[in-house]
Amino acid sequence: MYPIIQFALLPLLFTSAQSTPTPRSLPAKVHARTSSPGHGTLTTTTNGSIIHAVINNPPINLWDYKLAADVSSFVDTLATNVNTTTNPKVVIFSSANPDFFIAHYEIHALDASSPVLPPGNGTLIGEQLLRTRTNLATLPVIFIAEINGRTSGAGNEFAVQCDIRYAGPATSVSHLEVGFGLPPGAGGIQFLVKLIGRARALEYILSGRAVDAVTAAAIGWVNKAFGSAEELTQETDALAERIAAFPEQGLAAIKARVNVQKPSDTDLQGDNDLFTQLASTKVTQEAASLFLKVSENESAGTFELNLPKDLTEIVPPGS
């Protein structure tokens, strides 16, 4: 959904947890575990053929220029390593922030009156987002989203394009684009319809309502919900270990054939084109400015913590 237009208008969008993150507890492995600083807002940890990538972009894990560039760079590295001995079988994405998985897109990238500072222009962020979308779907790597916190808009579009989603008790998934007079533009519509069906996708995208972990699992938005952050981590790790135990060629072949059911490139491009067309309208620009005001410039305050409950506050009068 993140338009590729010069003056900055890209993907948006966004969405309780414990006071401190739960430490990961990986099962014992014969492989040596190595750590690296990752890609700025991502810290990566390798354990055999599994990579764990932790998102940490304070204060609310915005999908901004930094995170978009880091995720794109990381996934591009995986694409470069395809068919080499260094390519992982499984990648787990999780968050270091107990309140947010990925909040939403950086709204300054949408608001022409208050654009993001260079190099975070809309064109570049859009290219990064769409390239990441393509790589998540097509690479012979199994991507697991370990969600425990709010995620909406661009954040949810990233999550639904991972191959598997496990959710913890603090999970809240949603789409906020409707508040800006926009449709999701980076795959959110097409992937969500595939997951939960036409009627439910319409219900949640049109209303901008949040869905908790248990409900999300019941309708297919996520694979499974867990009652604690600790159980979420343990079960995600166990699933990754199980998948990684099987031959790489089989994993790649299965993903490729399941991808026959993924949304078409034509439909995905159509969503992005419509988002781009509407993003510069008066309604969207006014809504973006209102959002930045009531969210206190996207801080970790009451508005962001309550999203999408208070989404109607950003709707311009008469729209």
UniProtKB/TrEMBL annotation:
Q: Where is the composition biased (Polar residues)?
A: 33-44
- GO MF entries: catalytic activity
* Segments for region (Disordered): 22-44
Q: Fetch the InterPro entries from UniProt.
A: ClpP/crotonase-like_dom_sf, Enoyl-CoA_hyd/isom_CS, Enoyl-CoA_hydra/iso
| Signal peptide feature range | 1-19
Q: Which PROSITE patterns match?
A: ENOYL_COA_HYDRATASE (PS00166)
Q: Name one GO biological process term.
A: fatty acid beta-oxidation
Homology family:
Belongs to the enoyl-CoA hydratase/isomerase family.
Supply the name of the protein.
Answer: ClpP/crotonase
High-level lineage: Eukaryota, Fungi, Dikarya, Ascomycota, Pezizomycotina
Keyword Signal on entry: yes
Organism whose genome encodes this protein: Lepraria neglecta
